[in-house]
Amino acid sequence: MPTALDFGISAMPPEGTSDEEYLDQLAGWGHTAHELPFVKDFPWKEKRCLAFGEFAGDRGIRLSIHAPYFATLTPQDPERGAQCASAIEHTMKLAAAMGAHTIVVHGGATHGEAPDVLLYRIRERIDRIAPKVSDLGVRLGLETAGRDGAWGTLGDLALVSSEYRFVSPVVDWAHLHAITRGALAEAAAFDQIFGFLESSVPAWMLNPLHCHFTDNLVGERGEIRHLPYGEGTLRVGPMVEAAARRGVSLVLISEAREQSSHDAIREEANERLAATEVIDEGRLLATLAVDLPAPVRVVGEAGRFRPLGIERPLTLSNIDKPYFPDDGYTKGDLVQYYSSIADVLLPHLAGRPLSMSRYPDGIGGSSFYEKRAPGHQPEWMKTSPVPSDSQGGEIDFLLADSREALMWFAGMGCIEMHPFHSRVGSLEYPTRAVFDFDPAEGSTWDQVVAGVILLGEALDRLGLMGVPKLSGARGIHVYVPLGPGHDHARVRHFVDTLGKVMVGANPDDLTVAWDRKRRTGKVFIDANRNAFGQTIASVYSVRPRPGAPVSAPIRWDEVGSIRNGDITMLNIWDRIRRHGDLFAPALAATQTLDAAEEALGIPRS
Question: Domains in the chain, please, with CATH?
Fold first, then answer.
């Protein structure tokens, strides 16, 4: 996927000009982004934000807001810190009303304090607002510092971004140029910055990367003042060249004060982007017409295709074979999907043996399950022995521990990823209880929804946290993450018992009956999904159905409003960019069933 460049400026509409006229002017200049600098106060109410957002959307202009300068994260005074957090929260809510994708926040002064002290305080401030803003679909963009004594190195931003799914880095190139005493002179210097971000931040946070740009005069302690473009030493061309060679898409906001500087920055950026030749030759792996986080290019070698820019050796075959023929999606598209989703998916597969659900000729052909590692997998792929009663001993299962492993699975026609509920080293102890709401013949989606909502209420009363996801096929799965010490029999008994309680509360919609005839017209709660060796389609797994639906996580307040088929491998990216990994709570395996079992009258063995 070629590098995309959305260019805009940071400015407020001038007095006497309507918002529509102003946005028409920006669009006429070729701007596709715009940042509103609410840097002194909050000049607009929600009503105007809503209207401005609609006008901008009609013109294809991406919006962002710069939060007030006083709304920083490091004030030492607790009361002042609470006020700053409230201001950031308010900015994010205005941005949500506007449909803006990012707000930009300065970290604040270090006050000469130790890094761990500052990080503790920053986490405290973000934690304060997280419950109210994490699902707004707005990124809290932390901006790089531009002077000594300010918080916000790239390492700082990467660390905090890794801990909060709604936080991401914002790169102010003038700040970095200043703090490095003018080091950003060549494309290679910018490339180092992009390389660090790629190694430290998930790909979906970087595409697009929100950044600011203006020329500046560099002094001994960092940035002194902005200059008209061309009078300082910072140039946009080398930055755009480095981004293009890395395949990083940009939202580039000019913070210059002169229209002539805006024009010069935009023209040079577009000219360098058009002139830059991507070093990696070959062709794009995917044909999907969508902005992917990590596009892959391949070159032909001896009748196969070798992906470029990966760490482990891998070749693929028949990448143009139709896998979803009615939709036009190919094997290459599937491989590209799993490559792009790797940062989000791999933590949920880590250490879990995988059963392969293979469709070597796509969803229109025959399929089969393959548990044993076939033996012709790449040498670098990891395996783990798993006891098998049917085989009378142990068999080696494959593990997915890298982007390249996911690409290999997809290249083998493994459309679905089916991981164990337990991990290597403790296979007898699952890390979650799974409630599989499987609609039987004659049942409806509304019945599935009713069952899931009832489970949510039950879990809340039992003091347990559950995480729902669309199955991607017909039902909904709810995972209850568990801490150590719960074997499969115990977990299965818990799911079966709670399932029977739910059937008692709603016998018209739910059943736990094993006789298929008795399930007709109801939703089956399948407790046996929790037995040893049982698997279920992983979160973010593509399902072998028309449209390439994904088993996607949803919020509890979305149960009933989003259904299977709404989220696909084509459209999931905006959702991830807006919300991050909604399934991350399923990794927090600390809960115990002790209190819930006591409440349900389940005896402990």
Answer: 5-275 (3.20.20.150), 284-419 (3.90.920.10), 432-600 (3.90.920.10)
